[in-house]
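Appendix C. Worked example: Xanthine dehydrogenase YagS FAD-binding subunit
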Amino acid sequence: MYPFDFTKVCDTQGALEAGRRGGRYIAGGTTLVDLMRETVERPQTLVDISALPLHEVTVTERGGLRIGALVRMAEAAAHPQVRALYPVISQALELSASAQLRNMATIGGNIMQRTRCTYFRDVTAACNKREPGSGCAASQGFNRAHAILGTSDQCVATHPSDVAVAFAALEARVHLLGSDGARSVAFADFLLRPGSTPNREQALRQGELITSVEIPAHPRPLKSGYLKVRDRQSYEFALTSAAVALHLRGGVIHEAKVAAGGVGTVPWRLPAVERHLIGERPSQALWTQAAERAAHGARPLEHNRFKIELLKRTVERQLRIVGGTP
Ligand code: SF4
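Step 2, the predicted output written as structure tokens:
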């Protein structure tokens, strides 16, 4: 680990000033400290923001949810309103990591976490995300866990967050605070595909803070859930995953929100699947036909072609779990 300065701030103004001077925000530190140990990350100054007043989960006036950036994963997963309104969020969080990590890591840190591509974490390997212009060892290397959607010739790494898949499906917004004031960004625009700049991963400006993630109100009742498929049952990153939320009225699907994880360079919304569901009545045939559209546009690599079929089966299974069959 390289030497660094450490400062703790007690208010947002102090945080923004430190951030403007180039300080890196840290709260739970469960990703950043690991990466610093491996010398992948070498911040000169860490700014501890864990004392900022961003620890609340609240129901918004319109009936959505606002989750403060510093709410711990475990707190968010266990929160009665999160469990009641959006079980897909609770399930995604509980399947993410060990209890110890969930007790430390925050919602803001979770969506900021960096890829688990092994070449990214190996400082002797070529990696455009870690060192722009150096190449991508994964594209010709062992790429079984990598992305099949949203890739570029510069980077094929997946985004590792589970709860980000639920946020993408639920059309969340990320609230930010910077020296120019507050703004909010649609979750779909917050995490960036690699394109020609895989080192740029979020639509954050210098020194900006995430203050909360807001889930808009959806029609009720909304049935939702998260399914994660991985090499081992306990605390592993997703090979594929599916976040599904369905609103049925009179036995007909009126709203369908579906996103996939483990397959995209960002959490991957599946609009073709959603379109196929809306206006239909649940049936096994419907789930199968809709899931057939899940891998539209996929570009598999040498070792991860299996993800195409696995993704379809993951989506089909989760549609059946959430939507049931008559
Ligand atoms: Fe780096 Fe992305 Fe290539 Fe992995 S896939 S080695 S993160 S450029």
